[in-house]
From TrEMBL:
Protein name: RluA family pseudouridine synthase
Ranges in a coiled coil: none
Record-stated family: Belongs to the pseudouridine synthase RluA family.
UniProt source species: Hymenobacter aranciens
Molecular function GO terms recorded: isomerase activity
InterPro entries: PsdUridine_synth_cat_dom_sf (IPR020103), PsdUridine_synth_RluA-like_CS (IPR006224), PsdUridine_synth_RsuA/RluA (IPR006145), RluA_PseudoU_synthase (IPR050188)
Top class in the EC scheme: isomerase
EC number: 5.4.99.-
Amino acid sequence: MNRPNLWSEQKEILFEDNHLLVINKPAGILVQGDATGDEPLSKKAAEYLRFKYKKPGEAFVGVCHRIDRPVSGVVILAKTSKALSRLNEMFRDDKIQKTYLALTGKPPVPESGTLVHWLVKDTVRNVTKAYSEKHSQGLRSELKYELLGPAGNRYLVQVNPVTGRPHQIRVQLATGLNTPIVGDVKYGFIAPLPDVSIALHARQLQLQHPVTKELMTFVAPLPDAPHWDAARAIVG
């Protein structure tokens, strides 16, 4: 997949200080390296920091959370080990408020509510299965959702995950509401999107700065892709 030249206009950089680098990740880019060998966001960030600050060696970039490769939106990277350890603890203890936007092919019924499942990850197939009853191998997973309205021939749903599990939003919407995310053929949507992304966007993260303790809110603009055009009229 062709991807934009990240950092070309620094439009993907939402915030930077001595401890944090906050990125609006384009869909199609890994956050952290994997077996594919494709260049991840963390490597690109290290190159950016090394060039910007003329560092003789490799810049420190710590990954404290991930969003799936076909998902776009807010990713926080740590520039110091102190920030990384504190952010890891905050994500582990669910102390960071996360807001996602998803497009679905039909409206959820009911239009708002809470979903609770026990998720089991199949690492070989890279797919997660959701169980409505407690499962011995499953991790309890919870999210809140709300229909924001029709967006063209799709429906815009706001999702606030309480926990952070692999593929959580994707599998919970598909299993719990029978509303797979547009383009997400892995979890039941009928066809992929032209750019092979899925219509899931990490819209906002709100947290206490790990060092200064200031309350911070990071908002990522929607991707410049046709399937998000109708949603822009709703959320801007």
